[in-house]
Amino acid sequence: MASRFQSRLVGTIVLVALGVIILPDILDGHKTRYKEDIASIPLKPEVGEDSGQYEILSPEESQTELPESPVEPKETVAESQRPNPAAEMTDTVATTPKEVPEVNEYKDSGWIIQLMALKNSENAKKLVADLQKRGFIAHTKSEHGYTRVIIGPDVSKEKLEQQIIELQKITGSKGQLLKFKPLNP
Question: pTM for the whole thing?
Fold first, then answer.
């Protein structure tokens, strides 16, 4: 059997719970609820509903005059005096197409800097990421167990020559300036 203390404790908990739950509703009285007036926008205006009238104003006339145009009005040409387009086509001069030799002016215009070749590809990738953060156009190329760090390509040889000096300060390695071959890089 439960002791007297336990019975009183349970009874007290039940009375407090009822007081906390029920008494606020009883003592609160009449609750006023506020509703916001919500007006929905109709998808389609009602038929017969005035959708809005607008007053159309007449244009205002200004006192300034426009300058007269120097071009005189064109005279109408009679149908018999108009030139025949078919006759114009027959009078054309025969032209022979001139063959132009194809010259690839951009064949040797690209340049790259081969900065270094590393055995550890992770170190090469870290270096490339660092150079890209500094604004260089850098990438790697794997070849024969080495990973080459390449800067470029760029069409300006002078710009890359200046970058070689900057790269030597950053990495301590002087790169080689090479021609860029897009088909066999």
Answer: 0.42
Instruction: Give the domain ranges of the chain.
Output: 113-179
Distances in Å between the Cα of 111 and the Cα atoms of 29, 45, 135, 159, 176 are 87, 67, 17, 10, 10
Q: Calculate Rg over the CA atoms of the chain.
A: 45
Phi/psi at 132 (nearest 5 deg)?
A: -65, -35
User: Which DSSP letter does residue 81 get?
Assistant: G
CA-nearest of 173, 175, 166 to 113 is 175
Cα diameter, the chain? 129
pLDDT in tens, 7-24: 999 999 999 998 888 888
Q: Which CATH superfamily is domain 113-179 in?
A: Sporulation related repeat (3.30.70.1070)
Q: In whole angstroms, what is the distance from residue 180 CA to residue 154 CA? A: 8
Q: What residues pair up with 60 in beta bridges, in sequence order?
A: none
b/e sequence 71-100, b meaning 16+ C-beta within 10 Å: eeeeeeeeeeeeeeeeeeeeeeeeeeeeee
Distance, first Cα to last Cα, the chain: 93
